[in-house]
Each structure stands twice: as C-alpha cells, then as structure tokens.
Amino acid sequence: MIETYLPSRVYLDNSASTKLAPEVLAAMLPYFTEQFGNASSIHSFGQQAKGAMDEARRQVATLIGADFNEIVFVSGGTEADNLAVRGIAENYRSKGNHIITSEFEHPAVRNTCASLEKQGFRVTYLPIYENGLVRVEDVKSAITEDTILISIMHANNEVGTIQPIREIGGLVKEIRLERKHLFFHTDAVQSVGKTPVDVKLLGVDALSLSGHKFHGPKGIGALYLRKGVRINPQVTGGRHEKERRAGTENVPAIVGLGCAAELAKENLLEFQNIALLRDYLEREITRLIPEIKFNGDKESRLPNIANISFSYIEGEALLIALDLKGLAVSTGSACSSGSTEPSPVLVAMGLSKEMVRGSIRFSFSRYTTQAEVDYVLSVLPEVVTRLRRVSPLYKQAMAIEQHKY
After folding, report:
1. What superfamily in CATH does domain 10-19+269-404 come from?
2. Per-residue pLDDT averaged across 98-108, rounded?
3. In the chain, how many H helices and how many E strands?
4. Which of 2, 99, 261, 317 has CA atoms 20 to 30 A from the CA of 358?
5. The CATH number of the domain covering residues in 22-266
6. Does position 337 have pLDDT exceeding 60, yes or no?
C-alpha cells in the first residue's frame, strides 16, 4: 500500500527550473559583498573577480569536455541559442544562406530561425517521427551547397528524447573535409548535468547550456564555441568575453554556474537512480491508470523526464488539480506557458490534438525522493478519475463503448 506522505510541496517540474544547490549559494555569496570588483578592472578587486571567473570558465569547460577559451558566458540558454544561430548565420552569410533545424526545437532556436527567414535565410525544418527522433539520413538529404548551419537539440525539453547528435556530428565532419563552412550547433540546455556531454565526442561546433537547469542560478548560461568558429556578436559594446558578448560580467552568477558545473560532474552517476525512480513512476501509473500514452523514445531519452498523455482530460486541468494537492508538474515547455496552442513538439510527433492537450510532464532532479514519487502515485489516480467523470469526451467515449454491447 502506498503511504500518503507529503514531506513538503512536491516539485516535479525540474525541466523548467531546479532549486539552487546550497553549495552554489555559498560560493556566490562573497561576490555580492566582500569580493564585488569589476572583472575588467586592473586593481586587486577586479583581478580577484577575474580569477573567480577564470575558475568558473574552467569548471564549465571541464563538465562538457571543452577548452578554457571556448566558453562564452551569457545570460542563459535563450541567449546562447541566439548567439550561436544568429551569430554563425550572419557571420558566414557570404558562404551560404541555408539553415537546417527540426520541428522539435525549443522556441529559442525555432523562433530565431523563423526570424532569420524574414532576413532572407532559407530554413529547412526536419520532421520528427513518432518516437521523437530526427533521422540522420534526413539531415544528410537536406544539406545543400548553400548550407552553413545545422542546429539540432541534444535532448528535448518536453519528452526528454536524446537525438543522434554524435552521428550528425560525424556527418558534418565528413562533409567539412570538402566544404569548410558548415557548422553544427546543439541546444544542450536540458541534457548538460543529467547525462554525459562531451563536445569533442559529439562533434559539435557550438553548444548551449543554462545554469538553472542543473541547480545553478537563473540568469546565467554559457555557449561553447569551438576554436576557430567566428560569430557576429548580438550584444555589442566593450571587449568582454573576447569580443563575443559585451557587457560587465555577472560575477556572482558566473561563480555559481561554475560551482554547479563541478557539482554536476561529481554527481552525474546519481542520475542512474533518478532513472529508476522515473521508471517506477511510469510502471505504477501504467498499473493504476488506464488509457494513457507515454511520449518519446523509451530507450534514447534523459533519465529524469516522463511525459504522459491522459485520455479524455485537459492537461491544464490536471496540472491545477495536482497543484491543489501540493504537487507541481508541467504541461510542457515553461517558455510556452500561457499559450493556448497545443505543444508543437507533441504535434510534430504525430499525436492527436486530444492526446496533446492531455499531456503532463513529470521531471525529476537529484533531490527527488522515493517518498515524493509515492505521494504522486497516491493522489494521481483519484484526480484523473474525477476529471474524467466530468469530461464530455469521456462520457461520449463511454456511451459509444456501451452501445457496442
């Protein structure tokens, strides 16, 4: 029997944001007070701040297998995506005007590509199949003489599917033996800190990450930019970040990002246990609740995301009902909150409108406990049953079923 135990508000929306690790807060605090210098100043206060930034740059580089000077600090994943996609496309426009991406991308990439189309770039949006995967052969077929950039996310933020980035990177490397100006970017905001990410093994030229997705502070992220890849800066002014991103650096947040990166590397194996908790949740929901569908690939996915569609009910109604029970989950991307449109990710995967609207994302962190998952299982079946009883779709389906007999 499941114990109805609620240790505190249960938070299973970690793909939207994670709580700040205590060690990260402790690392940041001195840079708000005692060590407050501007990292561009040459006096001791400034050099102390610059030293802290250098250490954070090393920590982030180590997490993803990059070199120290290949890390550019930015305000978060959205800016990192914009800097990579716009920066590369604009800089190499004389070499071609074709970009390849997918229907699966985060709005930070998808909307940026749409904006570039208005500036005369041609964009190919690759299809996503039912399992949520891009096919490498589709990428290969889409490449033309004018292609300068491919941007495919490493792991999807809604269903957790991990794309064949290493295979695409190998394809790009092979083509680049003949054509120098072809670059590959991946949005790894959801995957960094939860699964091994090595930029050299993946074969990417640019990679985006964000601190608040792995227990770092909000408002800070980084772009990995392979040595030799040039970009047009999107924020101009001073010569900060080797003239790739102007503006006085947010030293406390950068220090926090570095600390979070180091902790993430140390605790990466813990996500094997998170995967076990996720699998337990899915197994028990299957046993307790009929007429559900799991979205995304069952094998190639992050260990901390379960996306489930519940027939005959609205995901938003389910989210609110669960929130009243002290449980925080999501209906999809936090960046699309407030939109009345169905998830473009699930639509691209071929789900019906009903199944898309009935989807809920449960996302775990390394702080998630067995007791919290058990609490979910103690309240979810009753909430789903209650919402289905008042659903016109459910009543209609039951009437049809009874008519058969």
Report:
1. Aspartate Aminotransferase, domain 1 (3.90.1150.10)
2. 95
3. 15, 12
4. 2
5. 3.40.640.10
6. no
Percent share of the chain, pLDDT over 90: 76
CA gap 399, 363 in Å, rounded = 35
Catalytically annotated residues:
335
Report the alpha-carbon distance of residue 373 to residue 387 in Å, rounded: 21
> Which tokens in the block code for residue 151?
């941007």
In 3D, which of 113, 106, 111, 118 has the Cα closest to residue 89? Answer: 113
- Sign of the C-alpha dihedral computed for residues 203, 206, 208 and 209 taken in this order: positive
Mean pLDDT (the chain) is 91
Strands in 292-294's sheet, in edge-to-edge order, are: 292-294, 305-310, 359-363
Among 294, 309, 376, 268, which residue's Cα sits nearest to residue 5? 376
Following DSSP, what letter does each residue of 59-106 receive, concatenated? HHHHHHT--GGGEEEESSHHHHHHHHHHHHHHHTGGG--EEEEETT--
3-state secondary structure of 301: strand
Q: Domain extents for the chain?
A: 10-19+269-404, 22-266
For the whole model, what pTM was predicted?
0.92
pLDDT in tens, 348-398: 888 988 899 999 999 999 999 999 999 999 999 999 999 999 887 766 666
Residue scoring higher pLDDT (221 or 43): 221
